[in-house]
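STRUCTURE:
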């Protein structure tokens, strides 16, 4: 088994790395402190051609594979976990949903502006009373003439404040449980759609999350994705891919924290020598390296399976579980290496630590990943 990047994959990785180090690093602290999505950074991402990496060229994307795309999220997240996460949600939870489940008209209409980044994508599944238990969803969609009329509230929705297109999951047949859910494409100017509470968060502060309220929200019936009843499966298949993206985000931010810890350990003098000579510090660095390397292999293996067209639910869950747990551990250790300096907001270490925590929660908690893995192993 060989996981060397080929030339094209390496080009994507390097392009994202250069962009992150050149443009993102300059502003990331300021943007995160403001807690507002940076349209300026997004526009630069568009100029770099990074907003539609795995979308086929016929729909205005770059037509690259998932290994390349994952490496882009990883490199961005080394500098800004918010930006890496935003790109993953936009691409995987919106554009790729339309690519996989949309009909020709839907793909022609929605994919080019999403791939170019002119329109930002969102995915509205979670509700106040339906997080892990997707089946307890309350939002409804009723066909009335040529329109579906949607009612309900969606919670913690990434990009709710800025998205042009939402994938919304709602119940079309309450008698059928998860088989009565359907997926819709909803434009942000649909009548009856509005943004509710904007959430104040511990980390990834510049990725805005908000409530989406649908009050008799009318959308054309052509905006149904697939068939009525496909919504749960579409969500699960989408989250399988999304979890690789979050694994890449977690991996990237862990690497960013590790790199900072290594640099500091080699520069910081205590007891007359760099602290990297102290075994206590070496053990922390060794622990970080093992966690990062394990997470990296699992993440790229899941992306490899996605490119190969194989089922990868278990592998994506393992990648997310390992990478997110590692990210929390590695960022905690990276602060420890920095001592008091690591706790201060002058350095990005405390930001990495705060950002890491969400990767154990969104797109399925660590406990959900364990359910998926155990079910797959136990049959
Ligand atoms: N790919 C394809 N099909 C899938 C699938 C997947 N990854 N996961 C489930 N399905 C199918 C099953 O095969 C089953 O189909 P049939 O009824 O035709 O056999 C159906 O979907 C129901 O599956 P299951 O019985 O496993 O569903 P559960 O209600 O038990 O839910 C969990 C399972 C908890 C794993 C699921 O609800 C989940 O992932 N929850 C977390 C949601 C989440 O991540 N939320 C965060 C959102 S942030 S955007």
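SEQUENCE:
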């Amino acid at each position: 088994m060989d996981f060397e990047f080929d030339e094209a994959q390496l080009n994507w990785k390097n392009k994202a790395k250069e962009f992150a180090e050149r443009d993102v690093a300059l502003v990331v602290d300021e943007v995160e402190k403001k807690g507002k999505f940076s349209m300026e950074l997004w526009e630069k991402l568009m100029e770099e051609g990074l907003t539609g990496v795995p979308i086929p060229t016929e729909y205005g994307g770059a037509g690259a594979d998932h290994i390349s795309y994952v490496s882009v999220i990883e490199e961005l997240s080394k500098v800004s976990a918010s930006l890496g996460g935003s790109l993953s949600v936009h691409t995987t939870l919106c554009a790729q949903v339309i690519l996989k489940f949309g009909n020709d008209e839907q793909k022609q209409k929605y994919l080019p502006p999403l791939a170019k980044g002119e329109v930002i994508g969102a995915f509205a599944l979670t509700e106040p009373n339906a997080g892990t238990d997707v089946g307890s969803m309350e939002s409804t969609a009723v066909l009335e003439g040529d329109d579906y009329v949607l009612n309900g509230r969606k919670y913690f929705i990434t990009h709710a404040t800025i998205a042009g297109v939402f994938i919304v999951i709602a119940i079309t047949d309450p008698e059928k449980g998860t088989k009565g859910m359907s997926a819709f494409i909803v434009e942000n100017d649909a009548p009856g759609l509005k943004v509710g509470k904007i959430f104040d968060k511990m980390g990834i502060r510049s990725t805005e999350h908000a409530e989406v309220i649908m009050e008799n929200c009318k959308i054309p019936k052509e905006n149904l994705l697939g068939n009525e009843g496909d919504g749960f499966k579409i969500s699960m298949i989408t989250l399988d891919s999304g979890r690789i993206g979050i694994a890449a985000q977690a991996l990237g931010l862990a690497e960013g924290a590790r790199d900072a810890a290594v640099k500091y350990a080699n520069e910081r003098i205590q007891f007359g020598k760099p602290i990297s000579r102290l075994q206590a510090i070496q053990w922390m660095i060794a622990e970080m390296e093992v966690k990062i390397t394990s997470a990296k292999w699992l993440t790229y293996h899941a992306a490899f399976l996605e490119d190969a067209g194989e089922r990868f639910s278990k592998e994506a869950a393992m990648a997310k579980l390992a990478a997110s747990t590692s990210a929390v551990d590695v960022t905690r250790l990276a602060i420890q290496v920095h001592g008091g300096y690591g706790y201060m907001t002058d350095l990005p270490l405390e930001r990495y630590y705060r950002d890491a925590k969400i990767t154990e929660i969104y797109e399925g908690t660590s406990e959900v990943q364990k359910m998926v893995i155990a079910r797959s192993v136990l049959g």
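REMARK: The pocket of coenzyme a persulfide is lined by residues 123, 125-126, 132, 134-135, 178, 232-233, 236-237, 239-240, 313, 362-364, 368, 371-372 (CB under 6 Å).
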